[in-house]
Predict the structure of Membrane protein.
Amino acid sequence: MGDVSDVMTQTVPRPAAGHRQGEPGYRRITGALFAVGMTTFVAMYAAQAVLPQLSDEFGVSPAGSALAVSTTTGLLALAIIPASALSERFGRTRVMAASALLSALIGLVLPWSPSMEVLVALRGLQGIALAGVPATAMAYLAEEVHAGSLGAAMGRYVAGTTIGGLAGRLLASFALDLSTWRWALEVAALVSLGFTLWFLRLAPPSEHFRPQPIGLVTTARHLVGHLTRPRLLVLFASGLLLMGGFVSAYNILGFRLLASPFALPEAFVGLVFLMYLSGTASSAAVGRLADRFGRGGMLVMSEAAALVGLALTLPDSLVTTLAGMLLFTAGFFGAHAVASGWVGRLAVDHRAEASALYLFAYYVGSSVAGVCAGVAYSAGGWSGLVGFVAALYALALAIGALLWRAPSGVTDAA
């Protein structure tokens, strides 16, 4: 990795320069962010593939086993804003590097937890450690990439997160066929460490960032400034609703496919996570289309596609369930790529805090809705789960339409 002590500021206006798509600097930056996205999501969501095994091992309910995911995302959400403030002082690449490395090391120890309580506690610590990556990555891209290429760059970063989420789940699922859930999580932790080392080698130093003093009053003032902008508030709410529904569906999907009427083997259930590849494709494609045709329309189209996909999963048909989850996944990641990139465009100053607020909402949605989803499934089965997620996505679609059609000039150039 380059000299991570070479840090600059985000309080100046976005530079007219910046790396454009196709340039060597652009490829190096987006390659490094792809790697760190892989690191983050392998670590964060490998546990999702072993939730049924955790229920059996420790004698907890689906909602109880879901704490292995929701605790991580919940504490990550709480740590995102402090991590973004640290990046204002110590630099983007330095914070991302420390975050990814510490998370990978915790991941190596975590699988040998003697109880569910210890496992949940370590997953919480891992969430705090992970916070520096998502808190910083969006601001780093917004500063270092030319505005005209930002959507595509954000799409590539989100693509890395989708493949990371897929890889973590698949590795854990395949390892279950050969060993226990403990070794499944250990394999995922080793892979996460490998991508961390890739990021450390590849990430270039910042060119458009200067360090600035940090403090509670200064950080609070920046946060309040973002929270008084209605367009940013709508995007923050969108992140909360979209991620909350997405994690809810995938937390419960394994339980549904293992149970009657499907009763699928664990190895096949693990393959279902290949549907994340639809998110890899959609996030990159929708990011490019948003640069060209506008963010509002692409956001609404992606959310609508996710809702249609969700409806297709209702019948007890494996074909329609898998097709629906494929479309649901593509719609979610397309919408997330648009919304996260839009935050970077709207927040001219203090982008790290703006990104942190979006991701705070995003992971609060994951944590809170992820637990509620277990309750909805226990009460109403898969139909109850779908009703819960559909309500979140219908609200996201409504506010996305308001953002798109707002007469106050909510444009990409805003």
The first helix runs from residue 24 to 45. Residues 152 and 288 are 5 Å apart (CA to CA). The chain has a mean pLDDT of 84. The chain has one domain: 24-405.
